[in-house]
Amino acid sequence: MLQTTQYANNTTAERADSLQCASARPLLTVDKVTLRYKTPNLLITATEDVSFSVEQSDRFVLLGPSGCGKSTLLKAVGGYMAPVSGAIHINGRPVKKPGADRMMVFQEFDQLLPWKTVLENVMFPLLVARKLPRSEAEERARDYIDKVKLTRAADSYPHTLSGGMKQRVAIARGMAMQPDILLMDEPFAALDALTRRQMQDELLQLWEDTKFTVIFVTHSIAEAIKISNRILLLSPHPGRVKAEVIDVDHARHDDGSAVALERDIHNLLFSEPGHRE
Amino acid sequence: MTNPQIILAADVTTNRPHANVAEIEQKLGALELIWGIGAVRKTVLIIVLAVIWQVYASYLDNPLLFPTLSDTLTTLYDRFADGVLPARIWTTLKVLITGYVAGTVLAGVLTILAINTRIGTDFLETMTAMFNPLPAISLLPLALIWFGLGASSLVFVLIHSVLWAVALNTHAGFLGVSRTLRMVGGNYGLTGLSYVVRILVPAAFPSILTGLKIGWAFAWRTLIAAELVFGVSSGQGGLGWFIFENRNLLDIPAVFAGLLTVIIIGLVVENLVFQTIERHTIQKWGMKE
Ligand SMILES: Nc1ncnc2c1ncn2[C@@H]1O[C@H](COP(=O)(O)OP(=O)(O)OP(=O)(O)O)[C@@H](O)[C@H]1O
Ligand SMILES: [Mg+2]
Q: Cβ of A152 under 8 Å from any chain B Cβ?
């Protein structure tokens, strides 16, 4: 059941293979993408030659140690930075600039507009990007605020919320837009263990309801296994694809396959000699 | 060896029921609430200062040098009643508002150009570096040659006093908007002017408000000073002229009444207008630095 496709030497044949078994056209394709940051005296290669594709209703996880370019990859998919080489396509169209078809839940806590209440924050993109009428936007916003269990805080301003509550507002805002892909950058990283578990369960519950497509960045192996159906393992300096894990959702806790998978992934990620973490 | 135990809060035995349950929200006392209002504390201070003035001036008993508060207030009332002061105030405020609004609008245009184009940034930076250290009042002689005696010279000087302060602060505020918020704006597909108006302006509002306050303070002082130098034009002077005129007539209580009016208008704008704006915006949003 469980498969780990290892890109041993990155042969294109292998990759073409793994693309083929998918449906006719994936929702998102990332093809041999290299991403660099230009600083005044350095050229930092964040990711090199990374390829993957995401299908409709995938819960796709980017997993890797800190600094392997997960956020950078997500920003490229979001359209915030252009690849040095390679191409990113969504629905067959190249990604050129940010857009509401790829809603982003950022890693940072300051992503809510402080001058808007929780409700207004969730409504705002529905009004300006989706051009929904006010009443409809409000109805949908309230619906998703209920889903992330923030009904009582709907009229509060973000500075009065806890970190976890802010993150939930950002998730509600992203999901209310019903984007083609929801991009989530370690949305639960700053939460305490208990809230984190609750949020993971809620996310899965919401996915059962609407079957949205999501790319989820994390550096917790356990979280990746719990949430995803596919995992892309990245190695650091620069970020390269190390392996892809498919059918993750078939791992189960009662027969120990989840634990075994976690150990396998751990060994894979930390097998590299000289790797410091 | 004893095993670890978990003792539930509900099982903790206390004499009073719910002793371990405290209320989360507690109302503050009425006095504490009133004292918490800045305006109340400041009013008390002003009253104390007024009493000291009255007592000291009565003791001095020299209305030509230092009239009492009651004399000043009586003159203030008389000059209001005979319509002289309201006319002077109106003249001053008309010029002030014209200059302030024009300066702010110009500052807005300059900063929007500055964040969208590199040459705009260079222009703004060079101009603010050059003109910000120059006191606006020093342009008055030149303005008088260019625009002649009249309101347009004053407006020119006022624009100069407002423009650079507001532009500098607004630009700094725009640059200080966090990368995340800018990316959120991009995510919603906002570009150009709607991006500036819907994301940058509110996100930079603390800085913009600071700029507006500084601009106001510069403008108010510059205008009164200019009117003192400039005197009267086309038959109707402003507050500065009122003070100057009454000094020449040795009507010192009226001079004090004029000064008091200048102070009161300044206080009203700074403490009522700007603080009300502040309370309804950056304080409510938790953005106050
Ligand atoms: N704005 C930037 N300027 C220059 N270099 C950057 C910038 N942002 C990231 N980098 C570099 O790019 C590399 C990848 O960073 P990235 O933020 O994508 O890592 P990450 O996988 O998201 O890490 P984490 O799990 O800690 O969030 C790092 O080596 C980092 O130093
Ligand atoms: Mg990151």
A: no
Averaged pLDDT of chain B: 87
Distance from CA of B269 to the nearest CA of A (A): 24
Say whether residue A104 is in contact with chain B using an 8 A CB cutoff: yes
A179 has a pLDDT exceeding 50: yes
Cβ of A44 closer than 6 Å to ligand 1, yes or no, is yes
Atom of ligand 1 nearest to the CA of A69: 18
Cβ(A219) to ligand 1 under 6 A?
Answer: yes
Question: What share of residues in chain A are helix, strand, coil (percent, to 5)?
Answer: 40, 25, 35
Q: For position A53, what pLDDT does the model report?
A: 92
Cβ of residue A68 lying under 6 Å from some atom of ligand 1: yes
Atom number of ligand 1 nearest to Cα A219: 25
Cβ–Cβ gap B188/A115 under 8 Å: no
Q: What stretches of B123-210 adopt beta strand conformation (E)?
A: none
Among B66, B81, B115, identify where a domain stops: B66
Q: Which atom of ligand 1 approaches the CA of A65 most closely? A: 25
**pLDDT, mean of residues A133-157:** 92
Final residue of a structural domain among B48, B66, B84: B66
Of the ranges A3-7, A168-172, A194-198, B9-13, the best mean pLDDT one? A168-172
In sequence order, what E strands does chain B have? Answer: none
Q: What is the pLDDT of residues A206-261, one digit of tens each?
A: 898 888 999 999 988 899 999 999 999 998 888 888 888 888 888 777 777 888 88
- Judging contacts by C-beta atoms under 8 Å, the chain A residues touching residue B287 are 114-115, 159
Whole-prediction pTM: 0.81
Task: Give the domain range for residue B248.
Answer: 68-280
B205-230 and B239-248 helices, crossing angle to 10°: 30
B289: in domain: no
B120 lies in the same domain as B249: yes
Answer whether A102 sits within 8 Å of B285, measured CB to CB: no
Buried-exposed string B220-235: b where 16+ CB fall within 10 A, e elsewhere: bbbbbbbbbebebbee
Which residue lies with its CA nearest to atom 16 of ligand 1? A69
Kindly state if the Cβ of A46 falls inside 6 Å of ligand 1.
yes
- Same domain assignment for residues B175 and B274: yes
Whole-number pLDDT of residue A20: 45
The tally of domains found in chain B comes to 2
pLDDT above 90 covers what percent of chain B?
A: 49
Instruction: Compute the distance between CA of residue A109 and CA of residue A105 in angstroms, rounded to an integer.
Output: 10
Task: For residues A79 and A83, give the distance between their C-alpha atoms in angstroms, rounded to a whole number.
Answer: 9
Q: What is the pLDDT of residues A30-61, one digit of tens each?
A: 999 999 999 888 888 899 999 999 999 999 99
The C-alpha of B201 sits at a distance from chain A's nearest C-alpha, in angstroms, of 11
Residue A62 carries which side chain, given as an amino acid letter?
A: L
Q: Give alpha helix (H) positions in chain A.
A: 12-20, 70-78, 118-128, 134-147, 163-176, 193-210, 221-227, 257-269
